[in-house]
Amino acid sequence: MSSPEQWTRPEPGAGPAATAAEPTPEQVIAGLRATTEGGTELTQLLNPEGERLASPRFDPYVADIDAEALRGLYKDMVLVRRADRESNAMQRQGQLGIWVPLLGQEAAQIGSGRALQPQDMAFPSYREHGVAYARGVDFRELLGIFRCSDHGGWDFKRHGFHPYTIVIGNQVLNATGYAMGQKFEGKVGDDDGEATIVYFGDGATSQGDVHEGFVWAAVYDAPVVFFCQNNQWAISEPTERQSRLPLYQRARGYGFEGIRVDGNDVLGCLAVSRWALEECRRGNGPVLIEAFTYRMDAHTTTDDPTRYRLSDELEVWKHKDPIERVRAHLARTGGADQAFFDDVQAEADRFAAELRDFCFNMPDPPPERIFSEVYADPSPQLDAQREEYLSYLSGFAEAGGH
Amino acid sequence: MAAPTQSRVESPATQVQQLTIGKALNQGLRAAMEADKKVIVMGEDVGKLGGVFRITDGLQKDFGEHRVLDTPLAESGIIGTAVGLAVRGFRPVCEIQFEGFIFPGFDQISSQLAKLHYRTQGKIKVPIVIRVPFGGGIGAVEHHSESPESLFAHTPGLRVVSCSNPVDAYWMLRQAIASDDPVLFFEPKRLYHSGALKAPVDPSATPEPLYTSKVLRRGDTATLVAYGPSVKVCLDAATAAEEDGMSLDVIDLRTLSPLDLGPVFESVRRTGRLVTVSESSGESSIASEIAARVQQECFYSLEAPVLRVTGFDTPYPPSKLEEHFLPDLDRVLHAVDRALAW
Ligand SMILES: Cc1ncc(C[n+]2csc(CCOP(=O)(O)OP(=O)(O)O)c2C)c(N)n1
């Protein structure tokens, strides 16, 4: 439904008329085909059947990925998916205010996240739980955000993982500025240089900030990889509501390279991201990567996708599952046996149980948290406001509880 | 100050219905679209999904994709193109998904929307309504619970209004759409689907003028002034105060720019005490403006300083703490007590 090079508008009068609510069968089929293939320029190293495809350009970037490394990527994805499903369930049980599912996007996130070096910086949007995991952020730290007891408390510098950003597109300019800083400080130019990666969705590409980020990055040769996870939908709006061109092709207009990778192929995402980061490290950036993937669950737990998308589409994408294809490949090549898969599953279950335990016991923050760290310098007015409010609260305690 | 002209609204005679605020807004949009084919609705997810709050539910189905536009995901784009459409003769009603996302569009609002009429000495009219779900109390993540209305009230050229009940939701929206001025329409999102607030909406009634405040409850101990979601808090506080032998005036401001403070002055002259209530931070806010104007007009009637019960002067906290941040019945009554003790 979202590869505009193949998505053709039916001529008026051709076939039964479409309405907003009901596309014609032709539209459905055209849409599904587009969604399935991702276009002729799709980079893919591991296809949905789990077969390894040769890529002269990108194979060198994953030459070190032996069976053990692949098992590692598999385990990453299984753990992250399990944590995502557990968090989704905890939202349903009232333990989290909201959850933003990553189901289906594990390969895009683990592939790109594992391509990063410790010295790199990642700027996420709000769905990048897999990248957070790859950057060593404790998954439990993410839960506070969605339980609404915290805005995100990890050590951003140590993990090279910026706070989540909810305002669509904002972080793209912030990342570009950060990358400009890397460049200005001379950290670009050799293979050990630094790079920045920024994550955003297909919907975000319509925002002015994203356009401006592309302009700035191009003008200053900023070492930034723009990583667009095209999961086909921006809440209810399909990609063709944002663009007439495949998104990766936009890069050309800004004067840098754009590439489309199968976002459900962890090897492909790893290879393409490593390549793009290397381009940036060497001073040949920026680069736009469009990871062509699919959001398998609702936009968030408050969303109702049955109102706007076809279940057929979902069914087709199930066959392209990012985890299943690695599993098939490992099984076929003898890279892993059943015991390995069972162990990973057991570990994922333990991980989920820990998360659940943590979440259920997470304390609410104290009221003084409202006033803390609003400013870097002392604020006598705010201090007075805090004192006044705390003394108001203590009045209730004296009166025998609130 | 000359009273702003009120555009007349023709209403299709339909039946009186018991509606929530959300449903009343939906019906108001529908009636406005039926009455004037230049009225179009635009925003993110307003079509098939019916908006994330379902306020535009069913409109695209009935009016088509060219009158209910699922726009690309860009607020500057939504408002900037709405300005162009308005110049062309349309009456766009823009939905901003959550108030915290209006800022990418702030440039278009403040640089173009607010100034075009003035700049062209009235040759260009920009009859745009920007609907903004606002306020806290829904347990949301960042950017989903803010109260930025003062920023817009501070911007000359814009009208800013806020409704607190289904009847006003219906009529104020219709009047705002009929108005030739740009109107920022702040909707109390946490009350959208409140069954307790359901009220009969009569589409053939004659509405209150748009830019007027309204006395909801008469009393003589002190005056409470609020708008949007805080109106209900004040009404509940007044009910509770009655048990303690106090009778409170409750005024729903309804219009934030222009402010209609006549009823407030009248009330304060009787009660001598004023407490203003709103969820936004207090510093440099609507509440501050009211305090300044009331002390100017009612100086000799005041028995106590005007007190403000507002959100704190901090960013909106993680929502596990919003019960502390948001003015509640206890904080309002505490302020009334302080005013009385002066
Ligand atoms: C500036 C802004 N406008 C609106 C929203 C509300 N909103 C949250 S997510 C979303 C859709 C984003 O779609 P996309 O960029 O494709 O990312 P995805 O969620 O699909 O990963 C919208 C409209 C927002 N967060 N920020």
Strand content bin of chain A: 5-15%
Count of helical regions of chain A: 14
The CATH architecture of the largest domain in chain B is: 3-Layer(aba) Sandwich
DSSP strand content of chain B:
15-25%
How would you explain this protein's 3D organization?
The complex is a heterodimer of chains A (402) and B (342). Chain A starts with 24 loop residues before the first helix and ends with a helix. Chain A has helices spanning 25-37, 67-92, 106-115, 129-134, 139-147, 156-159, 170-184, 208-219, 250-254, 266-281, 311-318, 322-333, 338-360, 380-398; strands spanning 121-123, 196-201, 224-230, 233-234, 237-238, 257-262, 287-292. Chain A has a five-stranded parallel β-sheet with strand order 1-2-3-7-6, with helices on both faces. Chain A has three domains: 1-37, no CATH class; 38-360, Thiamin diphosphate (ThDP)-binding fold, Pyr/PP domains (Rossmann fold, 3-Layer(aba) Sandwich), CATH 3.40.50; 370-401. Chain A is built from 14 helices and seven strands. With 402 residues, chain A is α/β, with parallel strands linked by helices. In chain A, helix 1 (25-37) packs parallel to helix 11 (311-318), helix 2 packs across helix 3 (106-115) and helix 3 (106-115) packs parallel to helix 10 (266-281). In chain A, helix 10 (266-281) links the parallel strand 6 and strand 7 (287-292). Chain B is an alpha/beta fold. Chain B has two domains: 18-201, 3-Layer(aba) Sandwich (Rossmann fold); 214-341, 3-Layer(aba) Sandwich (Rossmann fold), CATH 3.40.50. Chain B has twelve helices and 14 strands. Chain B has helices spanning 21-35, 59-63, 75-87, 106-113, 116-119, 149-153, 166-178, 230-243, 262-271, 286-297, 322-325, 329-341, and strands spanning 17-19, 39-43, 68-70, 91-95, 129-134, 159-162, 183-188, 199-201, 214-217, 222-226, 248-252, 255-257, 274-281, 307-311. A seven-stranded mixed β-sheet of chain B has the order 3-2-4-5-7-6-12, sandwiched between helices. A five-stranded mixed β-sheet of chain B has the order 9-11-10-13-14, with helices on both faces. A two-stranded antiparallel sheet of chain B has the order 1-8. In chain B, strand 6, helix 7 and strand 7 (183-188) form a beta-alpha-beta unit. Chain B is globular, with a radius of gyration of 20 Å. The two termini of chain B are 33 Å apart. Residues 1-6 of chain B have low confidence and may be disordered. At the A-B interface, helix 5 and helix 14 of A face helix 12 of B. Bound molecules: thiamine diphosphate. Thiamine diphosphate sits between chains A (127, 166-168, 201-204, 229, 231, 233-235, 295, 299) and B (44, 73, 75, 97, 101, 104). Chain B: Keywords: Oxidoreductase, Pyruvate, Thiamine pyrophosphate. Chain B: One of its GO terms (molecular function) is oxidoreductase activity. Chain B: It comes from Prauserella marina.
